[in-house]
Design brief:
Rossmann fold, Dihydrodipicolinate Reductase, domain 2, binds NADP nicotinamide-adenine-dinucleotide phosphate, single chain, Alpha-Beta Plaits
Length: 439
């Protein structure tokens, strides 16, 4: 049995406390799997007195996580503080500067500073493990970096945020509004008091940025990702999707295209029969397309203390075994600059919900605006509002909901058609546009 691998854990919140609990209770199995004893020697958090429901006896305590790096009894620094800057960033930089490997669950940090940190890790000859940073407990990083090494990955589609998936699932299952489901998610602890990061799509974008780099061998560029959240999804859209054989999911999608990498986060219509559509509640799903393998889909818990700790511990075992791979799958000099395909170049089907004035010529005008841009319609659904008396016999002039499904077209074309429809005064509100993902 080799010499013990000694861990210093900074951050003892949801994930950190679970890591401590699992390492403590599985010591003998971990030792066998790691090929050497694994032991926690030091920990750091802000509040020393807080009861974290785990036994911290025997560990050196540090109020300052950076001071923990210099502890000669710490071989590996595990950063579970969170945040793209501040204590987490300072800690990781200090660990790499000291030549100590890092394990982190911090997608925000990697999405912002990943390439630079990878460069520092390479210079120091150490690794950065981050299995827990994307899709919590689902082993997506190892799958992309190692298991799919024989493939050219052509696409990634993922449900990467459990909060949004929970909200959309409840909206559909219980026919509730977005606001009601968000409040319920907050009550159950699935959503933060300020939910913007989740429901605005930004958390998904951070995770997608990391996956994109691994899949396509590029530098990370989180700002190049087009982001739309779920705040404008209405129950009307959820119902219409259901009638048309779709479910609405917040997806992170990245694909190679002729003009570059199209990476976007947006609510999307996905066919109900797909695995992604059937991924409900707080679960995550990630689908990879590889030229040799075809499609593989991984589904599981994308968050939670134990699930995320499971991924952190996988990195600990790799570290104990001396399994060192380039941080983003390739040496940093081999990573290609990120070449972005603009969202306007996206080609696909669209769901369009319009509030059309019930006037003579409105439909003909809408159809012409579409035809002028070579947009073919796969279906048109109109639910006329119930009217009584004479109104029901003719045009009322009142807005009526109309849903259009288009065949594949360019985003520039559909946007131009909708601008023309709006300019012609046929609709009472801004149109709702949702991309269709043919999985
Ligand atoms: N929670 C999940 O389900 C999940 C899933 C995947 C990835 N992650 C990632 O895992 C990381 C940790 O998340 P979490 O949910 O465990 O967070 P959390 O519950 O908020 O815990 C954060 C911990 O960091 C400590 N901390 C904050 N500032 C510090 C500082 N300056 N010095 C030392 N310690 C400091 C806090 O100390 P006190 O306890 O004393 O305040 C707390 O123990 C984040 O990067 C997150 O994105 C989380």
């Amino acid at each position: 049995m080799g010499k013990p691998l000694r861990l210093g854990i900074a951050g003892l919140g949801t994930v950190g406390a679970s890591v401590v609990r699992i390492v403590r209770s599985n010591l003998s199995t971990l030792t066998l799997r790691a090929g050497r004893p694994v032991t926690i020697t030091a920990v750091s958090a802000r509040d020393r007195k807080r009861d974290r429901g785990v036994d911290l006896g025997g560990f050196a305590w540090y109020d300052d996580p950076v001071a923990m790096v210099a502890d000669p009894n710490v071989d590996v620094v595990i950063e579970l503080i969170g945040g793209a800057s501040g204590a987490a960033e300072t800690l990781v930089r200090a660990a790499l500067a000291a030549g100590k490997p890092v394990i982190t669950a911090n997608k925000a940090l990697l999405a912002r500073h990943g390439v630079e940190l990878a460069r520092l890790a390479e210079a120091a000859g150490v690794g950065i493990g981050f299995e827990a940073a994307v899709a919590g407990g689902i082993p997506v990083i190892k799958t992309l970096k190692e298991s799919l090494a024989g493939n050219t990955v052509t696409g990634i589609v993922g449900i990467l945020n459990g909060t949004c998936n929970y909200i959309l699932t409840r909206m559909e299952k219980e026919q509730l509004s977005f606001a009601t489901c968000l409040a319920e998610a907050q009550r159950l602890g699935y959503a933060e008091a300020d939910p913007t990061f989740d429901v605005g799509g930004f958390d998904t974008a951070h995770k997608l940025a990391i996956l994109t780099s691994l899949a396509f061998g590029t530098e990370i560029d989180a700002d190049a990702i087009y982001v739309e959240g779920i705040t404008s999804i209405s129950l009307d859209d959820i119902k219409a999707a259901d009638e048309l054989g779709y479910r609405i999911k917040l997806l992170g999608v990245a694909r190679r295209t002729d003009t570059g990498i199209e990476a976007r986060v947006n609510p999307a219509m996905v066919p109900k029969k797909s695995v992604v559509a059937q991924t409900s509640g707080v679960l995550n799903a990630v689908a990879f397309d590889g030229d040799a393998l075809g499609e593989v889909v991984l589904v599981g818990p994308g968050a939670g203390g134990n699930a995320t700790a499971s991924s952190v511990i996988a990195d600990i075992v790799d570290q104990a075994r001396g399994h060192l791979t380039p941080v983003f799958g390739l040496p940093v000099v081999e990573l290609m600059p990120y070449q972005k395909a603009e969202i306007q170049a996206h080609k696909g089907g669209y769901y369009v919900r319009l509030s059309v004035y019930d006037r003579p010529g409105a439909f003909a005008g809408i159809a012409k605006s579409m035809a002028d841009r070579d947009i073919s319609l796969e279906s048109i659904v109109q639910h006329r509002r119930a009217l009584d008396g004479e109104e029901a016999l003719g045009h009322t002039g009142a807005p009526q909901p109309v849903v259009l499904i288009t065949y594949a077209t360019r985003e520039t074309e559909i946007r131009a058609a909708l601008d023309a429809i709006e300019a012609a005064g046929h609709i009472a509100e801004k149109p709702t546009l949702i991309r269709i993902e043919s999985l």
